[in-house]
Each structure stands twice: as structure tokens, then as C-alpha cells.
């Protein structure tokens, strides 16, 4: 008698996250011809022997995999970055005949992020006694006048002084 092993299935889509939100909007199109792979050795690189596929015309992919733990990754196209998942990959442990579905959001928007803090010792680094500054506006001063204008990308710092600023293009 032979034991039959059923493969696990990882499916999903890859789409162009035009607004960088990480959530698919009705006008955000699929990305076809993109490579998605099961990173078995978890090194971030598609190696020979790792299972991969390319997305179809609807941005869909399908990976038939032996039961194991994988990082499901997308090979990011030139000029793009992954907005969701924030880690850039899905960490999955698959059993025989199990199925998972994951969605990759990718954008051409540049991301600038950081912290705003009171540099109490003037060393230029966030450390022990420095306090996070909540509610401060960080903006892309496209016209160089030192004043935030409503048409300039901006972000307000959170309770931890952190900000994330999406920019239309790198530069």
C-alpha cells in the first residue's frame, strides 16, 4: 500500500497599489508576469530548485508545494516596492492538502519614514532621554519655500514620533 501525499496550495494575487495604501482599490490593476516563489531556505532570493510561478493576466498565482514552512515572496519589478505585507513576504507553514491565499500590493511611490524627537543632548541620534514628538507635520517641500502647502505630501507624527511619507517619485 502506498501513502498518497497531497500537495499544499498557496494562491493569491499581485496588484499595482497606485496610492500606496496596501489595500486594493477598484482602479488598481493586476500585475501580470511577476514571479512569486516559495523561499524554502528563507534567504530572500529565488534559488534553483525553489518552486515559483508567474502571475496570470489577472495578477493571480498558484504554487503547489510539499508540506513545509516557507516565506512566500514576489520578485519585485524595477521601480516598485512591496506595500503589503509590510515585511515583503508571507510566513506560512503548510500541511498536506492545506490552502492559503495571500495578496501582494506593490507600488512605485517612494516611502520616506522616520522619527521626530527632542534631541536633548544634541547628538543627532534618538536615545535614552530624547522624547518623541507627537503631532508634528513632516512634508515634502516641493516648492522649497519652507512652508507646507496643501498640495505637498505630508504626514503627522504618531504618539511615538514616527511618520511615513509617500512621495510620487524617488529623488
| Mean pLDDT over the residues | 91
Main β-sheet description: 4 strands, mixed
Number of helices: 0
Amount of helix: under 10%
Question: What is the number of beta strands?
Answer: 14
Query: In one word, what is the shape?
Result: elongated
Spatial strand sequence of the major β-sheet: 4-1-8-6
Rg, rounded, reads 21 Å
Q: How widely separated are the two ends?
A: 64 Å
Low-confidence stretches: none
Order of helices and strands: EEEEEEEEEEEEEE
Could you please describe the fold and organization of this structure?
There is one protein chain. The chain has 171 residues and is an all-beta fold. 0% of the residues lie in helices and 42% in strands. It contains no helices and 14 strands. The N and C termini lie far apart (64 Å). The model has no long low-confidence stretch (mean pLDDT 91).
Structural key phrases:
171 residues, mainly beta, four-stranded mixed sheet, four-stranded antiparallel sheet, elongated
Brief summary:
With 171 residues, the chain is an all-beta fold. The protein has no helices and 14 strands.
SSE layout and pairings?
Blueprint: E1 8-16, E2 35-39, E3 52-54, E4 60-65, E5 68-74, E6 81-84, E7 89-94, E8 99-107, E9 110-115, E10 117-118, E11 131-132, E12 137-139, E13 154-156, E14 162-167
Parallel strand pairs: 1-8
Antiparallel strand pairs: 1-4, 2-3, 2-5, 5-7, 6-8, 9-14, 10-11, 12-13
Amino acid at each position: 500500500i502506498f501513502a498518497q501525499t497531497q500537495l499544499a496550495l498557496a494562491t493569491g494575487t499581485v496588484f499595482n497599489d497606485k496610492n500606496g495604501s496596501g489595500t486594493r482599490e477598484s482602479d488598481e490593476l493586476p500585475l501580470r508576469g511577476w514571479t512569486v516563489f516559495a523561499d524554502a531556505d528563507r534567504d530572500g532570493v529565488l534559488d534553483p530548485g525553489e518552486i515559483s510561478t508567474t502571475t496570470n493576466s489577472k495578477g493571480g498565482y498558484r504554487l503547489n508545494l510539499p508540506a513545509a514552512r516557507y516565506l512566500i515572496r514576489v520578485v519585485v519589478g524595477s521601480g516598485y516596492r512591496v506595500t503589503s505585507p509590510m515585511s515583503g513576504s508571507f510566513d506560512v507553514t503548510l500541511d498536506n492538502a492545506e490552502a492559503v491565499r495571500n495578496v501582494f500590493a506593490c507600488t512605485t511611490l517612494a516611502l520616506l519614514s522616520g522619527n521626530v524627537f527632542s534631541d536633548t543632548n544634541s547628538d543627532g541620534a534618538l536615545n535614552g532621554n530624547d522624547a518623541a514628538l507627537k503631532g508634528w507635520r513632516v512634508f515634502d517641500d516641493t516648492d522649497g519655500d519652507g512652508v507646507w502647502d496643501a498640495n505637498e505630501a505630508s504626514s503627522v507624527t504618531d504618539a511615538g514620533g514616527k511618520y511615513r511619507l509617500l512621495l510620487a517619485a524617488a529623488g
